[in-house]
Amino acid sequence: MTPVDMWFDPKCPWAWNTSRWLLEVEKVRDVDVRFHVMSLWLLNDGREDLEEWYARWLSDTLGPVRVAIAVEQKYGTPTLTDLYTALGNRIHHEKMPIGRDLYESALYEVGLDRRLADAADTDEFDEALRLSHHTGLDPVGENLGTPAIHVPGPDGKVNAFFGPVVTPVPRGEDAGRLWDGVLLVTGAPGFYELKRGRTESPRVD
User: Per residue in 67-110, pLDDT tens?
Assistant: First the structure.
């Protein structure tokens, strides 16, 4: 099984789609997907050139990230798979307001201590958050965000990249073919970028 590590911020809809795609890939390719925490708030902290709407959007992103990193610290990285699903379903599908009710509901669903919702309002785990954030994003470079993915290359070195940014979520063998293509292009020596303008908002499903 090939380990595939993805770094996510729970509120990012594009990361959510990529994570659901990776779980589809897991069904049709020999990969083991592992999720890790990054923070869009941390990524943009101190920037003065943010558009006003995006600054507002970022304002409630730190709480879910802090809860996720607190869970990882207490229960281990594998727990993040179920927690991310529980948080993401509430944020992206149920449109629950981000806050304590959302955190406690998600924690309860996956059988974790609901008192970990307290982490949203403290900096107790911020050092661990920064470590996880930089572990995921530094190898990608260029101040890129989520989705960030690491997968071992043929030479054993880490192939780290941003993306793919995709909507709707590819399913079944479509997911597998996209994975094959992503590995092909990102694994090419000297390959850095392939991009086109977005023509639609993310459709989460």
Answer: 999 999 999 999 999 999 999 999 999 999 999 999 999 999 99
Instruction: Give the three-class secondary structure for 58.
Output: helix
The candidate with the shortest Cα–Cα distance to 64, out of 93, 94, 102, 115, is 102
Asked if 18 and 165 touch (Cβ cutoff 8 Å), the reply is yes
Residue-level length of the chain? 205
In order of 1, 27, 56, 79, the CA distances from 30 in angstroms are 5, 8, 40, 21
Compute the C-alpha angle 105/19/170, nearest 5°: 125
Q: Are 29 and 168 in contact (CB under 8 A)?
A: no
Separation CA 87–CA 175 (nearest Å): 23
Cα separation, 54 vs 32, whole angstroms = 33
